[in-house]
Amino acid sequence: MKKDSKRDMNRRKFLKILGGGTLASTVALVGCDSKSQISGGNIHIGNVPTDKMTYRTEPKTGDKISLLGYGCMRWPRRSKTNASAEEDEIDQEAVNELVDYAIAHGINYFDTSPVYCKGMSEQATGIALSRYPRDKYFIATKMSNQSCRSREDSLTMYYNSFKELKVDYFDYYLVHSVGTFDVFKERYLDNGILDFMQKEREAGRIRNLGWSFHGQKEFFDYMMNEAGVKWDFVQIQMNYFDWETVLGRTNVSAKYLYDELTKRNIPAIIMEPLLGGRLANPNFKAQAMMRRADPDSSYASWAFRFTGSQPNVLTVLSGMTYMEHLQDNLLSFSPLQPLTDLDNKLLQHVTQTMLEFQNINCTGCQYCMPCPYGLDIPGLFAHYNQCLNEGNFPDNTKDENYREARRAFLIGFDRSVPKLRQANHCVGCKICMSKCPQYIRIPDEMVKIDKFVEQLKVNG
């Protein structure tokens, strides 16, 4: 009897959280700064413990890996001294400070690449980590030979990573960002680089060999069943939105990828747990649900707890540019509080609201950049998505808030993206499409954004 009463009470609480369809009809109008998508929404920082980090055990080596891993793709930047405003460099002092705090609070996994931060990430990461004993951290880097595919160039990249990271072995090494057989064949088979990496693993210079997946189900199945390699781990994009959602040209859910790895006892390393920042600052309907359920947790923490609750996840990567993001994320894993069944049901409803809002599915990875015609592709998409999520999307001229929303969108648009880098300068060359791991039809989205902006100007 008591169990039934408790179940009914939980169900009533859950329905209250969903709001019964009664959400506020208006929201605050802001300038829609695209940077806020990366920085996240309601960051909650409390007392971050130094001894509560959750760890997972890598089955082959027995390594104890922090469940929160540091993605080194978005290190803080600063303008160069006596240089133009367009040039900047990594702020090494800030990187050192972030790494010191991360290690002091239990993070021991750091993921980088020769191409991150315009080729500067490995060096900055190596400088920061080399101040610690080698057994204090695990380093992951990649064969990122997307634009230098010859054997000679690939080997040069491999050996340079040792130099930049100041190490004599890699804990985790990845075949980077593959999704089609033709590209995989050219980058790793025809030049013998995959065979080389397996020999390096035998020699101990690579302790764990894996790959990061951006593609379709057929290629994933090939890598699992026919590539002829015993993979030690696989890096996949996984979050509560992608768990069962399949969009665009992708044809595989994160749940399928995770389940296939679990069947084979291959650890999953998670990238994009926040979907490029979108889950750190979701749409206003989703925010209302989450605040009702747990007003003391950040939106990002819901996403981190979702991925961390899956037992075959070895570590969850987050690119933390600012100290407050690092602190907030640490709270999600120090220790991890696994999601309940009600929590997971709530996130299913959050996902449905995100599908209703029809965001552009960009994660801000920058792989499409630089655009040969100067467009700020991620910046354009971020501004569009952010204004949509915050309810500042002027799509109905009869709405009483239309004029304010129109003004906020256009002013924020010009502030976020310089005029010469806006959507109307896209020529439809499609060079960016082949680089996009999300398979976004970027020129089509540019046409949509340009038409929308022009229509706003006409309706002034």
Structure notes:
The chain is of the alpha/beta class and 460 residues long. The protein has two domains: 43-357, TIM Barrel (Alpha-Beta Barrel), CATH 3.20.20.100; 366-458, no CATH class. The chain has helices at residues 2-18, 35-39, 92-104, 121-129, 151-165, 181-189, 193-203, 217-225, 254-263, 284-293, 299-308, 323-333, 341-357, 377-389, 402-416, 442-458; strands at residues 55-57, 64-66, 68-71, 77-79, 88-90, 109-111, 138-143, 170-178, 206-213, 233-237, 268-271, 313-318. The strands form three sheets. It has an eight-stranded parallel β-barrel with strand order 3-6-7-8-9-10-11-12, surrounded by six helices. It has a two-stranded antiparallel ribbon with strand order 1-2. A two-stranded antiparallel sheet has the order 4-5.
Tags for this model:
16 helices, TIM Barrel, 2 domains, 12 strands, alpha/beta, 460 residues, two-stranded antiparallel ribbon, eight-stranded parallel barrel
Write the layout of secondary structure elements.
Layout: H1 2-18, H2 35-39, E1 55-57, E2 64-66, E3 68-71, E4 77-79, E5 88-90, H3 92-104, E6 109-111, H4 121-129, E7 138-143, H5 151-165, E8 170-178, H6 181-189, H7 193-203, E9 206-213, H8 217-225, E10 233-237, H9 254-263, E11 268-271, H10 284-293, H11 299-308, E12 313-318, H12 323-333, H13 341-357, H14 377-389, H15 402-416, H16 442-458
Parallel strand pairs: 3-6, 3-12, 6-7, 7-8, 8-9, 9-10, 10-11, 11-12
Antiparallel strand pairs: 1-2, 4-5
- Please provide the count of β strands: 12
Q: Output the CATH topology of the largest domain.
A: TIM Barrel
Strand order of the largest sheet: 3-6-7-8-9-10-11-12
- The name of the CATH architecture of the largest domain is Alpha-Beta Barrel
| Distance from first to last alpha carbon | 62 Å
**Number of individual domains:** 2
Provide the residue-averaged pLDDT: 85
Strand content: 5-15%
Structural class: alpha/beta
CATH superfamily of the largest domain: NADP-dependent oxidoreductase domain
Return residue spans where pLDDT drops below 50 for at least 5 consecutive residues. Answer: 20-39
Largest sheet: 8 strands, parallel, barrel
The level-1 CATH class of the largest domain: Alpha Beta
Percent of residues in helices comes to 40-55%
